[in-house]
User: What shape does this take?
Amino acid sequence: MNNTDESLLNATIDTTNCDREPIHIPGLVQPYGFLLCLNEATMRVVQASGNTLELLGIPAEELLGQQLSRLLAPEPLAAIEQMLPSLTTTPRLLGAQLGNVVGQPFYKIILHRYDQLLWLEFEPVTEAPASTLDLPFLNEAMGKMLAATQVLQFCQDAADQVRAITGFDRVAIYRFGGDESGEVIAEAKHEELDPWLHLRYPASDIPKQARAMYLKNWLRFIPDAHYVPVRLVPTNNPATNRPPDMTYSVLRSVSPIHLQYLHNMGSAATMTISLIREGQLWGMITCHHRTPRLVSYELRDLCQFIGKTFSALIRTKEQHDEQDYQLRIRENQVRLLEHVSSNENFVEGLYRQQPTVMDVFDCGGAAICFDGEIILLGRTPTTAQVQDVLDWLQQHAPQQDVFHTNSYAQLNPAGISLRPTASGILAVSLAEAPGNYILWFRPEVIQTVTWAGQNQKVETLADGQLFLSPRQSFEAWKQTVESTSEVWKPLEIEAAKEIRLHISDVRLKVFNELQARAASLSKLNTELERSNDELDSFAYVASHDLKEPLRGIHNYSLFLLEDYADQLDADGVNKLQTLVRLSQRMENLIESLLQLSRVGRLDLVVEPTDMNELLAEVLDLISPRLEQTGTTVTVATPLPTVLCDQVRMREVFNNLLTNAMRYNDRPAKDVEVGVVLENMMSPKGEVNSTDFHVFYVRDNGIGIDPKHHENIFKIFKRLHSQEKYGGGTGAGLAIVKKMVEKHGGALWVQSTLGAGATFYFSLSKHL
Assistant: This one.
């Protein structure tokens, strides 16, 4: 072993140099598989992991200089040669057996190209056979991710999905803060495990070079955290005289600090998926198991797909949260200022009714200081301490109408005693007279943090050096954030300014400020509409891009059935037929998603339309189906002429009539179409016949339980199994709903189980 080998195997990393640890060139691998590095020009092995003797019975030194034919039969060799022109840092998977090695212990080869080398990593077969693509699960997962509007629910759905795929004891979503510390904001876990939810970790727990690698390599996997690393033979690439860059290697050995960290956490196996927003590391999906666990590459790849989809959507979800918070601030602010305007004494309007001035935005407490009186709300410093703050403001910020800090103690050493309640202060002056302020307070971050490592012990090595442990890293982090609160957001500061302006001249500015607020709400609504348009665009692009690989899965499955059915047993043929059926099902779902996104993207072509003629065209189109199912359609009343998009209205009637036929198990199926001429009640209130036409489609079918009346309009929501009532994707009513809403109307149902259903939809008369 040369000096480089010794340094890589025996180097000790402590708290002073962990940020400089060269984790991308360890020269070591995890021993659950083995690694070969090939010269791209000669296609001969230049480096091999030292465990080939144990796994294959062939010393690594014997493999050096050899071609892949030493291990592989011609068929997998041809497959590798075919991959080479398009091979990049993105891993590719090849299923193969080591045809030229007795025992044939491996069948998965993971290939990528990087650092002037061709990398082949051989993974063992997991105990359970590799799962086929679970299209219904993937569809449900995508549907949940698209539907979630709040970040926390979005994260919880992702954690649940990854745990369902992998079976890890715990799957947690870890989000980074502005200071690069992190917090667990969602988790799915085994019932026996203690929760990690809301636990916080300092930035030093994930060194800078690890974060840099997480941006390049989306997934890291350690099936056994107690492994003994195996060195490369030789450690240095002969062409470069240095260890190869293993950034994209699946088997890359991790830092001994990280392994010690996992031991401290009681984790015997782990998988981590990067969550990247706009090129920055937003957080991670981190998985842990109490015993070693080898998850197949296929399932890990599916989890990585979920992580990348999560990353593409997270900014939109954050915008929803931000807009919700901004709307809440605006709504509370409007109500507060109404109290101020309606009270003869504006000070009473700030605290006597809900919401109070403390409720406008997130804070621990507030103080109203006016004409020598101090009124305290929530968790605040004492009256005497608040007076000290007022005196300090008069001395150090006398000309500032708005003052804010998230570390008062850094500006005023006397503020140390206030940090449990007032590390952060936001203040607005109310008048030219000194001492008239509204103050909002936030507590110190440390006071609100549940530290993940507070019961951990520091690990000391025999030579006196310290491993970086959770407890040590927390102490270092704590020193940087003591006496510091959460930062005041610009929109909170702006809200405080607006309160001040309103109070400064409450009677003269009421009208103008109400107009300003209305404009602000309109802007927010416009932003929400834009956000929804972006979601529609994403659904369209994602669905369109999914069709091509899915079509490949479908076609290759058919090829296998046609060409190899006689070589498979009945079970194998059945599985291929299932794959064909599921891929066709997924294609139908994707087509429905595309149709739904098109509805939101296309403009209406509105023209006067005789609905009697339009309905007659639809009935003529579906007449074979009506005759086949024994369905009679009756038009109860003449239908009006309305302003609508004729193509969309045909689709609406077609879908509703088709459903009326499909979900009906009676020998004589009766469907009635008509229009309601008077005002009527919908779930959202009265529908005025002066402003809306209300049409209905009534059947004598199976009916719908009232508890499902809202769910049936959700995308891909079915109340019955796929085999019952003629199949379908469950997207039809969602598409109809969107078409009707595009016309300014609404869609709803009245029904009870077993007693038929009546679907109503309104169309605006003033498009």
